[in-house]
Amino acid sequence: MSFRFTLRSCLLLVEFVAGGHFAVAQQAPAAATKSATAAPKRQLQALRVTEPIKLDGELNEAIWQQAPVATDFIQQRPNPGVPEKQKTEVRVLYDDANLYIGAVMHDVSPDSILREMTQRDQFGNTDLFSIFLDTYHDKLNGYNFTVTTSGVQLDARYSPASGEDWNWNAVWDAQTSQRGTDWIAEMRIPYSAIRFSKAPEQLWGLNFARQRKRDNAQFFWNEVKPEVDGFVNQWGELRGIQNVEPPLRLSLTPYVSSYVNHNPLNAEGTRRTTTSFNGGADVKWGINESFTLDATLVPDFGQVQSDNQVLNLSPFEVQFNENRQFFTEGTELFNKGNLFYSRRVGATPIGFYEVTAGENEKIVRNPAETRLLNATKVSGRTSKGLGIGLFNALSNDVYATVRNTETGEERQVQTQPFSNYNIAVLDQSLKNNSFVSLINTNVTRWGQTYDANVTGGLFRVADKKNAYAVDGSLVYSRRRGTTFGSDKEVGDQDGYKYRVGVGKISGNFTWGLNHGIESDTYNPNDLGILFGNNKITQSLDLGYWKYKPFWKVNNFYLFGQASHTLLYKPTRYQSTSFYLGANTTFTKNFLQVGFDFSVDPRTHDYFEPRVFPLGDYYVRVPGRTSLIAFFNSDTRKKFALGMNAGNTTYALDDRFARERRLRYRFGAYPRYRVNDHLTFRYSLDWSLDVNQIGYVNGGLSRDEPMDEAFMGQVILGRRDVATVSNVVSVAYTFTNRMSFTLRTRHYTSNVRYADFAALSPGGAEQLVDYRRNRDNTYNAFNIDAVYAWWFAPGSQISVVWKNAGTSFLQANEATPLYFDNLSNTINTPHNNSISVKILYYLDYLAFRKNK
Hints:
By secondary structure, this protein is mainly beta. It is built from five helices and 45 strands. The protein has a 24-stranded antiparallel β-barrel. Strands 1, 3, 6, 7, 8, 9, 12, 13 and 14 form a nine-stranded mixed β-sheet that branches. The longest helix has 11 residues, at 7-17. The radius of gyration is 28 Å and the shape is globular. The two termini are 54 Å apart. InterPro entries: Carb-bd_dom_fam9, DUF5916.
């Protein structure tokens, strides 16, 4: 039931208002209407065909006119409940192998139909049509197949775990055309793209959606009320599909790839330019009508977008986005409970930073990534609503190479042992949009090191009216073995966490109460990610939501939270926080404005001192007040602009610095669409922390010794931190199956220290004569250029150029001047890589038919 809306969540709502998502994005529903009861279920009869249907976007076959029609759509935004004026007519046909959908979208004039060309799975300034299918009619899980006026395909999955998952991809086809003031969409969805039971007569959940971008309006065939919690539970029904058999779902997607890599920073005596040739395959096998096996054999992820590297001054690791398709597609079951951080699979070897060179030695090779041998997923859901997921991945041994500079002799240092990663999930769907789940993650490493196991249970139970719900989770973590590379036992590390919540989930006013504990030994980090355990949290969430237009605005959101946190062991005060946020969209120009306001009276940061176990040392964070405001212009225009600005002011206390801490931030995100094919985007993020107090002592790098004069002490520094991130991107879409994108990012962060203090137990600080110059500047520069051509369904050729360089300047070399940093970064030797990858989709059913 918890919701903490921040500026980021407000910006996500912008994408929703701009047409980027469907109603599932409103997990906390919100309209000021009289009833929070779902609309009555509409029904549509599918018609069986015996003659082939030509997929041409014309609907010329006579059988189309004999099929029952779904029409009279209802507006969902910006004015919920209003019947559509420009009619939509949809018909559904089927045969033994495919589902066919024909839709005619009437409009007032050809100029009213917008048709920007985008890459696959990307929304744009375009009209679109969608079909939604709940093939097991469990009212929780479903499919979305969408096509735009330009014929661009999008698809998604819906589930309680992942909400709206656009990373899921299926192999299907669609064609569109424009006829006078109408545009037509024709889809062919093979049964191999979906899962359903063997019942002789199918009953599926069904809905259709249409977006008229000209009015920023979205319509559904079966009304979707925003004040009702959930999305799939508000669909109608598809009847009439009889005597169809779930097909054998078997496909093979082999790949070949070739790389040319130039790294001028390679050690002397090693090749600066290298080449490689790789091959492997992805396999999909429908074990039965409900379950599918997905496997990637000898995978190659070298073409994914570069990570956004940052300077990390916090006590916690940086969480990077997952860009590898195998780990983003069809993972809704494995993401339940947030126990799976997929970047752990194939991550930096656990002994990467422990490799050292002895006298007359140098490190000539130390791989920063673990190469996977294979990864496999088995997932599906039975006709009774039981979802089952199994995940397994194997990574090979990884070794660093150290060379004797005098003799040339080389030795191998193991940095990662052969490892096995496992996840098992059971997820039972229940009535009234409810569920109960059990998840287990396990990491087993060969050799002398430790293994890890995490088990969690989750539940959500809503009442019959779907107005109130109780949810919660209980997770147990366990580690056993020795620290990698030593005989030191990790000890019996057993930990747990739990959370329970209750709240009102439907209607224009919502609320939620939550309580949770994470023990001091809870640690899911071997296959998950954790940002600070050892805490007790309580929170109250309140929300008021109005979707009906009033005055001069389309909608209005107001939300708030009060939270309180204690250290779990020993039980001590940690923080109190109050938050209020709001945003609205104006009726005529679709300008969105909003703000985030928070007050945190006093915080004790037990993690910043890096002293374990926690409890005695903490950094005092004085009371702070933060305000962030943002606006986003109309995305239908050629030029659109989003901006945000904020300030955080800290109370003046008796800190050693006796200087008030301030934080400023600013962001600008202009976009210019030249035409329906070419778009430029720019992103600027700037922040300045003045008089930030943070941990200092210990080496700036793992090779630098600690300060001997201050051994045994925790040294804090008062510092100014200025960070700038610039991203420029251009996208040119040749056709709905061919595109070119170029993305350039420069990130710089400069840290300048003023004075230092020693931290004592209880939070006391005393100025010290610490003379080492800790000033530093970090720069990261990336270029990602991608040409992609989907030359056949599921088959692609991609050519990728990557350019990457980083620099870390210390002491007197550090500079706060942005353009000096940009020049230094560009002139620093960069790693360059050019790769070509070819995927070819082979479908067993098509092969058998052609044979």
